[in-house]
Amino acid sequence: MSRRGAVQRSPTFFVGAEKQKKDLDAFQRREQQLAEVYYKNKPLCFNACTYQRTHPVKANSGHRDADATLVSPMAVGVADGVSQIEEYGIDSSELPTELLRQCEELAFDQLLPRSRAIAPYHGPIPLVREAFCGTECLGSTTLVLALLDNSTRIHGKLHPMIAVISIGDCELVILRRLQGRSGPLELVFHTEMQRVDGHCQTPLQLARVDDRIDAAFDDNITVEVIERGSAVHCISAYEGDIVIVGSDGVFDNLYLDEVAAIANKVLPPSGASRPTQSSLLTNLSKRIVEAAHQKTKPTVGGFLPEAPIGRGGKMDDTSCVVAEIIEWTEAHQKLYAREEVYPKWSNFWHCQVGCDGDENELQEYDGEMTPPGFRKKGRRDEMFCSIS
């Protein structure tokens, strides 16, 4: 098979109202995975980094990158805009970006560890439903979102959980050192793609469109997709867990064991209990994206590599979030409690290009170590910047 064969794969298509509604119950998942191993009774959070890059062939053709990523202490996720929307004059990147902004704000209000939540948390489905209802942009997008819930208790003890909601063909995997700190990272959980009729160009999706695209479509259909068609999983969270979230550009090209192998190469066991350096998490997300793009190139013998979607994979927008589960410390609490300094965590999150802390802002902590993920203030739109 030639390399040209890999280039000619079809783009992602918008799925109309009738097809969206047909198989919602078949897509639905409601699962909970509990591991009752005792650990220190303490809240946890994400320390996350992200990298995204459109495949060079698509970028050279003027293709718009419609992926958006979210990294924050209590929520990480990827939303992949449907490219066919562009044919109707709609910016395919707007809805995924706006949706993740809404998810971020709701997660801040509902999940940030504090004495009293600003708003009650009722689970991932109500959160995503409210986030979508808070958006205004036209478009269509897939979504996978992980929320860190520190409210669960088992036998009276705090038991943090990762709540994952997936709609479409973005995926999430969780790796854990099951053999102790000196052991390798092993796969303990992964989501499954949701594709209408099994076609790789028609994922289940969240949409808001007008009569130009589908006269029968309204927001109630998307709310039904969230409530009935979403796959929801709740998994026990432990310090040191590695959460990898990617668009279909990652998981159509890489097998799960390949993702785990890359993670073990970049994050070898250290035996230490310290959080992983953010630079290593960024490097891992970049290595995963690069490995996905490598699948579209012929090997020395002229053959295209095997990929889950078929030989040669596909050339696509490719985004990856890598997060480590770490302890929510007193330093985190001090930082995020000061709403006049940090009204939302967009001021202190880790952007794709990597930022350094502002020394003036660090002085108030009197030399105390600042929490992982602390970064200087930045504009909210930097949250969703792309690296091309």
CA(first)-CA(last) distance: 28 Å
CATH topology: Phosphatase 2c, domain 1
Low-confidence stretches: 1-9, 339-370, 373-388
Our estimate of the beta-strand percent is 15-25%
Structural Rg = 20 Å
CATH class: Alpha Beta
In short:
Helices cover 27% and strands 22% of the residues. By secondary structure, the chain is α+β, with helices and mostly antiparallel strands.
Describe the structure.
- With 388 residues, the chain is α+β, with helices and mostly antiparallel strands.
- Helix content is 27%, strand content 22%.
- The strands form three sheets. Strands 1, 3, 4, 5, 8, 11 and 12 form a seven-stranded mixed beta sheet that branches. A five-stranded antiparallel beta sheet has the order 2-14-13-9-10.
- Strand 3 (67-71) and strand 4 (75-81) form a beta hairpin.
- It is globular, with a radius of gyration of 20 Å.
- The two termini are 28 Å apart.
- Mean pLDDT is 82; it is low at 1-9, 339-370 and 373-388.
- InterPro entries: PPM-type-like_dom_sf (IPR036457), PPM-type_phosphatase-like_dom (IPR001932), PPTC7 (IPR039123).
Topology:
Elements: H1 3-7, H2 17-22, H3 24-27, E1 29-33, E2 44-54, H4 56-60, E3 67-71, E4 75-81, H5 94-111, H6 124-133, E5 139-149, E6 153-154, E7 157-158, E8 161-167, E9 171-176, E10 186-190, E11 206-208, H7 219-229, E12 231-236, E13 242-246, H8 248-251, H9 256-266, H10 278-294, E14 317-327, H11 330-337, H12 359-362
Helix pairs in contact: 5-6, 6-7, 9-10
